[in-house]
Structure formats: C-alpha cells, structure tokens
Specification:
This protein has 145 residues and is of the alpha+beta class. The chain is built from 3 helices and 5 strands. It has one domain: HIT family, subunit A (2-Layer Sandwich). The chain has a 5-stranded antiparallel β-sheet, covered by helices on one side. The two termini are 26 Å apart.
Length: 145
C-alpha cells in the first residue's frame, strides 16, 4: 500500500465484488455522471504496470475484465465497450470497462473528450435505472477458475 495512492487508500467507487487480488467497482465520482455505466477492475496490491503481475495474476485480471464486459453487453446492449488501462493520472493498475452508446454525449470520442452533443436526459435516466441489475450481476460473479 502506498499512502499517496488513491486506489490504495480508497476503493475508487462503489465496490460490487471484492476478491483477494482485485475488486470490481462502479465509478461514482461526479466527473463520470454522464457516463454512468463506467466500471473498473482494480488490482488490490499496488502495482503500476501490467507486466508487474505474474502470469497467473494477469490471467485472473483479464478473466475479470472479460467477465465485466460480458455482463455489460448482456445487461445493457451497448453500441461498444471501451477497455482502457492507462494509469497516467493514477499509476495503480486498474482497467476501465465502459459501456458506450451511440447517443451518449461524447460518442464516438473517448469518455474523456469534450462533449459533442447535449446529454439525452431521458436515455441517461433509463440507463441509470438499469444499473442496480448490472451491479447485482457483477456482484454474483465467480472469479476463480
């Protein structure tokens, strides 16, 4: 644990599933309010890079990312799933798993881009109403092989 690392000292969002090596969270910070189906797989131990993990841990991590993607696709039928493991701002290994829709205010640009249209408040509200079911499906996952 590194006391200055936000993902070492905090969960990073709403924890849906906590495994010995990683956790699945839904991002809940105000900066992702217009991208509500924004999930992360966070490695619990502080490592900065993918290659810092042993092969077995890489396999577990990628199985988890894949499981989150599958749940989002099944539950939400998004236009696209965005996967990213950047770590430029928070150098603690975590994967973004984000359901994107052709109506979202930044699509097809990245979620961090400047919006290209106004939010569709009705569709956003409908998506938010579906998130508890997505969260429950993620909480019920079994991550062990």
């Amino acid at each position: 644990m590194i006391s200055t690392c936000p993902l070492c000292v905090e969960d990073g969002g709403l924890v849906l599933l906590r495994h010995a090596q990683c956790r699945i969270i839904r991002a809940t910070s105000p900066d992702v309010a217009d991208t509500p189906a924004f999930y992360r797989v966070v490695w619990n131990a502080h490592v900065a890079e993918w290659s810092d993990l042993a092969e077995a841990d890489q396999a577990l991590c990628m199985r988890t990312v894949t499981a989150v993607e599958r749940v989002l696709r099944q539950q939400l039928q998004p236009t696209k799933i965005n996967l990213a493991a950047l770590g430029n701002v928070v150098p603690h290994l975590h994967w973004h798993v984000i359901a994107r829709f052709d109506w979202d205010n930044r699509f097809p640009a990245p979620v961090w881009a400047v919006p290209v249209r106004d939010n569709d408040a009705e569709r956003l509200a409908q998506l938010n109403a579906r998130l508890p079911a997505v969260d429950a499906a993620l909480a019920a996952l079994s991550l062990d092989a």
